[in-house]
Write a structure and sequence with these properties.
- With 353 residues, the chain is an alpha/beta fold.
- It contains 13 helices and seven strands.
- The protein has helices spanning 2-33, 73-76, 98-101, 103-110, 112-120, 168-185, 188-208, 211-231, 234-259, 262-283, 286-307, 309-335, 337-342; strands spanning 38-44, 56-59, 62-72, 90-96, 123-129, 136-142, 160-161.
- The chain starts with a helix and ends in an 11-residue tail after the last helix.
Length: 353
């Protein structure tokens, strides 16, 4: 009887442990599902190889959510259109935890109105490789080039929509494809043929040149130059150069003797003294008074000579007549000295009746 009771208790213990484990799992799972999340969606017009459900969504390298769905836009939207008229974009949905973003940025991404403003500011999603494993994740960041390109859509997204930008690999592949396409458009064969033709023409022209004749003419020219240089009277040039050097030495000696003359050395001192006297004269306060007095005197003389110009002419004429009379009197006294003392009086003047 006691052995059966022990089995019963053991069974109760096992059932209680299982129930407790299930309760713990439910509590942990409930806490995970009760966290506030924001669903976003984006579209890609390229391959999303390496992106899986559960891949991280990062905001500038910080994990803030995960991918929850990967599909095509024509599965969810454009149901009223024919299959050949629907867009072939890849639809990627994810859930973000605003608490992981933190601060004002959490509210900016969590609400549709604020997220639209952030999209206008350049918020975009793009695929980013995770190391060399071949897996990718979604990266949220702001682009520098505004306005950033957006895929054209003609439906209203059901969740918060954040446009995508081409991934780095896609951009690189596109650039490489463009370079290859330009290379294909180049007519390389024609270019090589033209180059070969040019080289052939240059070779023929060089071969047609008379290199022997050119060499002979060059030798004759050099010989003429040598003979001309030899014909120059080098001795005469040497004598003239020596004479020129002698004259230069003589001129140098005269210049040194002139510069060493005490009078020349004293010239700066005399000049400085003269300049000092001129400076003292100019700085003398009586100089303006003297100039003003001189101006007044010149003004008076100008007025005197200007007003009495006619009187001065008459005075000079009378003086000339007096001088003539004195000259006649002197001549008469020299010829007839007695007439000056004993001469008869002058005749009276005749009165007119």
């Amino acid at each position: 009887m006691s052995q059966r009771a022990n089995y019963f208790k053991l069974g109760l213990f096992v059932i209680g442990a299982i129930a407790a484990g299930i309760a713990v799992l439910l509590i942990i799972g409930t806490g995970r599902w009760l966290k506030p999340r924001t669903t976003i969606e984006t579209y890609f017009n390229e391959s999303v190889q390496g992106l899986d459900i559960g891949s991280k969504i990062k905001y500038r390298g910080v994990a803030i959510g995960e991918v929850t769905r990967i599909s095509f836009t024509y599965v969810k939207y454009e149901q009223d259109k024919a299959m050949n008229q629907r867009k072939r974009y890849v639809l990627v949905e994810g859930q973000l935890e605003p608490r992981l973003v933190g601060g004002k940025a959490a509210n900016d991404i969590a609400s549709p109105e604020s997220s639209a403003i952030e999209v206008e500011r350049g918020l975009r999603v793009h695929l980013a490789p995770q190391g060399i494993t071949g897996t990718n994740y979604l990266e949220l960041d702001y682009v520098d080039a505004l306005p950033a390109p957006v895929l054209p859509i003609d439906w209203t997204p059901q969740n918060i929509y954040i446009p995508s930008t081409p991934s780095t690999i896609t951009t690189f592949v596109s650039a490489a494809s463009e370079v290859l396409e330009r290379l294909h458009r180049l007519d390389i064969e024609t270019t090589i043929a033209n180059l070969n033709k040019l080289l052939t023409t240059a070779t023929d022209r060089v071969a047609s040149l008379d290199t022997g004749g050119i060499s002979k003419r060059a030798e004759k020219t050099l010989a003429k130059i040598d003979s001309t240089l030899d014909g120059i009277a080098s001795k005469r040039l040497s004598d003239e150069a020596v004479g020129l050097l002698t004259e230069l030495r003589k001129t140098n000696g005269e210049l040194q003797s002139f510069l060493s003359n005490p009078s020349f050395r004293k010239l700066p001192e005399d000049t400085s003294a003269a300049l000092g006297r001129v400076r003292e004269l100019v700085s003398d306060p009586r100089l303006p008074q003297s100039i003003a007095h001189m101006e007044r005197t010149l003004g008076r003389l100008d007025r005197i000579f200007g007003a009495g110009e006619a009187d001065l002419g008459t005075t000079f004429e009378n003086l000339r007549q007096i001088t003539d009379n004195l000259r006649d009197l002197t001549e008469d006294a020299k010829r007839y000295p007695s007439n000056l003392l004993f001469g008869a009086p002058p005749l009276p003047l005749e009165h007119t009746r």
